[in-house]
Specification:
By secondary structure, the chain is α+β, with helices and mostly antiparallel strands. It contains four helices and five strands, in the order βααβββαβα. The chain has a five-stranded mixed beta sheet, with helices on both faces. Strand 2 and strand 3 form a beta hairpin. Helix 1 crosses helix 2. The N and C termini lie far apart (39 Å).
């Protein structure tokens, strides 16, 4: 198992994996749109993607988006996506991906990594809590749906 920082050269394989991730979240498959979305992320340098690969096949990824804390005046990384293909789950791949993301965040002098998960995704919650992530008890988070 190898975990590495993805680049534009990995776009084709990563697009297929990203599409399956979106289907997992009940979205319609659209590899062309997935490829375009990821291509824009690489081109604009507005996300970081780590990929897990086994025997030359991408089996999981995590994607980080940058943000900032005005109060601490430091970077924050938003761990927005974490996905491992079904046959490869419960083999420590999500942990390897999170290790890479957290190491990257520390090396970039970030003040924290934040994430959100569905209330029903108890497996992910157990993973995050086992790594020291805590539920926010100080702030309510709101969203305004625009589309």
């Amino acid at each position: 198992m190898e975990v590495f920082l993805a680049s534009i050269e990995h776009l084709e394989s990563l697009s297929r994996l990203f599409d399956r991730y979106r289907v997992f979240y009940n979205q319609t498959s659209d590899i062309k749109a997935a490829k375009k979305f990821l291509q824009e992320r690489f081109k604009n340098k507005d996300s970081i993607v780590f990929v897990a690969e086994e025997n030359g096949e991408m089996v999981g990824f995590t994607q980080l988006y940058p943000s900032f804390s005005s109060v601490s005046m430091k970077r924050i990384w938003i761990l927005n996506d974490l996905y491992v293909e079904e046959p490869y789950r419960r083999k420590g791949i999500a942990t390897l991906l999170m290790n890479a993301a957290e190491k990257y965040a520390k090396e970039s002098n970030a003040v924290r990594v934040i994430l959100a998960t569905q209330i029903s995704n108890t497996n992910a919650q157990k993973l995050y809590e086992s790594r020291g992530y805590t539920k926010d008890k100080e702030f309510y988070h709101y969203a305004l749906q625009l589309q």
